[in-house]
Amino acid sequence: MPELPEVEAVCRRLRAEAIGAGIVQLRVERPRTTWPQRPSWVERQVAGSILERVERRGKHIVLRLSGDRAIRVHLRMTGKLYVIPDVRFRPPATRAWMELSGGRGLIFEDSRALGKLHVYRGRELDQALEDLGIEPLSKEFTAGWLVAAASRSRQPAKLFLMDQRRVAGLGNIYAAEALFRAGIHPARPVNRIRRSRIEALHRVIRSLLEEAVASAVLAYSEPGAVGEAESFPCAVYGREGAPCERCSRKIRRIRQGGRSTYFCPGCQRSSSHSG
Asked: 36: which of 23, 129, 157, 209 is 20 to 30 A away, CA to CA?
């Protein structure tokens, strides 16, 4: 699933190519993409509007339209959102598309058909996103905030970071990589990790995401081409059985919250090293 850096790369591309464009029409090719909203209603809300801003909230892409409307897109596993020169040449896996002024197309392609597109009016979008936590690249995400939040939670460190109600946009790849850089075992309860190491985790999250965003932007060489951590050098994620680049111990994989977690048992010891 695309995480914050990949979604940010998509947003930056859309800001450069689509802001200010008039939307002649929107067509929904797969009704479940907009469920429970009716495709015909969604299409009527969007037609004739202007794309004014492109925003990111966690892993969600928000297209702000004229007339106090907004489109929220969640890419899920395989979703892609990009502009093509001619709307007539849409790929087979297109689930929804917009004809832009001048004949261009804004395409929502999704081979596994798991992505979602919804339209909101007025403050409805704020209500839909109100459960999302703090943005890890915002000025509000401070070391003090992370220390306080960790002190109130008994969640394992990895699940704490991936909880979108706490930190928005941080997913499986970058949570694992951040914990490795900070030397924290993924299964250790966050309220049992000392303050100095939580502060180090805060610094690591900021620097890692900045690196990953830069990498994702460079990797987005053509519409829809960016992938999770495509050119970001992962130290632990996906490297089960490979030697750790720091201590040469073999990278391990465990299951947490139904997902695979990768870590180094030497650099991320479960007790003294992260306590």
From this structure: 23
What one-letter code names the amino acid at 26? L
Per the structure, the complete domain to which residue 33 belongs is given by 4-128
By percentage, how much of the chain surpasses pLDDT 90? 88
Give the tokens for residue 226: 């960016």
pTM, full prediction? 0.89
Q: Which of 189, 259, 265, 269 is catalytic?
A: 259
- Return the pLDDT at 215: 87
- What residue type is 32 in one-letter code? R
Domain end, chosen from 71, 102, 128, is at 128
- Which of the two residues, 265 and 272, has the higher pLDDT score? 265
Mapped onto helix, strand or coil, the DSSP state of residue 39 is: helix
Q: What is the CATH number of the domain that holds 114?
A: 3.20.190.10
Residues 259, 166 within the same domain: yes
Does residue 274 lie in a domain region? no
Nearest to residue 186, comparing CAs of 196, 194, 176? 176
User: Does residue 222 lie in a domain region?
Assistant: yes
On whether both 116 and 153 belong to a single domain, the answer is no
**Alpha-carbon dihedral angle through residues 40, 45, 46, 49, given to the nearest 10 degrees:** 150
The catalytic residue among 2, 5, 136, 223 is 2
- Please tell me which residue in 59, 188, 197, 252 is annotated as part of the active site: 59
